[in-house]
Amino acid sequence: MSVTKQRDALQLLQSIGSYPWYVEKFIEHKKTKKNSPSTLLGYLRDCSFFFRWMMTEGLTAATDMKEIPLADLNELKKESVESYILYLQESHLYERSALLTHPTKSSRKEYSDKTISRKISSLKSLFHYLSVIAEDEHGDSYLKRNVLAKIELETTELTPLARAHAIRAKILIDDEIYQFVDFIYNGYLAHCQTTKKQQYHMQNRDRDTAIVAMILSGGFRVSEIVSLNLSDIVLEKNQLKMIRKGKKEDAPFFSDWGKEYLARYLQVRANYHPSAQEDAVFLAVSPSNPHGHRIEVRSVQKLVKKYAKAFGIPDLSVHKLRHSFATQFLRLNPDPHQLQAQLGHSKIETTMQYAHVLEDALSKAVNRTT
């Protein structure tokens, strides 16, 4: 199990006791379907948000989420669930203050249609389990009626070309790949307005550049990079040993270009003052832990967004770096099966989504036809 999954599994274990017993049963059922700990945590967060909304709206007499009885779910009306959807659509206007103890900047951001659909899908999954799959000692369903079954999710099916068009503005192509990495190392300092920010950047630029360059040089997931140990690196072969999604052992490659940035970082890794037992490749320090320890996925996501915004591509995310590698790979090596092996995809259909991103290639093919 990767470090990220171990952390999520621990968090799942620590938080599940705060939920009603039937949610625990639901999570146990999902575990049998081999859902990852992070997916299960997502279910819990979505259920928690809904339950707190129920308490705020007076749809339950319970004052503790754990005490919400099944009967209250059974009594929910379709209008109530539709009111919840409206709340999700407008909650940013109130910073979601009714449901959040400590509202943050993100609480002022409007939920996307995709986020709202996911939150409702989580509830639909819970209610389906309670009304159709689960049964009590008499063989009866936990819920007599499933109000979520009456809620339809509006989904817009995108063609591969439409999806490609949406992705194109959020990834790096050709020289942009090298320009972005060079910007992190040489250009971002000019965007640091204070001496403190300048010092922080100079302390971490080798690490940050190496993380981004490695993802771009091999199409790795952020969780795979964060989970890397020193013993996982085979420098002479440009390979990384890792456990991928589905608990599959793999040894994908990275490029010589990425290797240069990794080697540069490894030369200064000791500056983070890790303990002799710390085997993590990419380290971070904090006021509570000044000794170098494994950097977290969330930290990498935030640093990529910071650099992307300054670079002028604010929609570029750490996952889009993986998209960037995949798109560039197919641009220069038109063999999706090789890319499938490198990315660790189980199905070639997943890999083929990148074949449509470069519309210029399709345009030339159309012109060649007539």
Automatic annotation (TrEMBL):
GO biological process: cell division; chromosome segregation; DNA integration; DNA recombination
Major localization class: cytoplasm
GO cellular component, one term: cytoplasm
Protein name: Tyrosine recombinase XerS
Segments forming domain Tyr recombinase: 167-367
Domain Core-binding (CB) intervals: 17-131
A single GO molecular function term of this UniProt record: DNA binding
UniProt keyword terms in alphabetical order: Cell cycle, Cell division, Chromosome partition, Cytoplasm, DNA integration, DNA recombination, DNA-binding
Subcellular localization, as worded in the UniProt entry: Cytoplasm
Recorded coiled-coil stretches: none
The UniProt record lists the keyword Transport: no
Organism domain of life: Bacteria
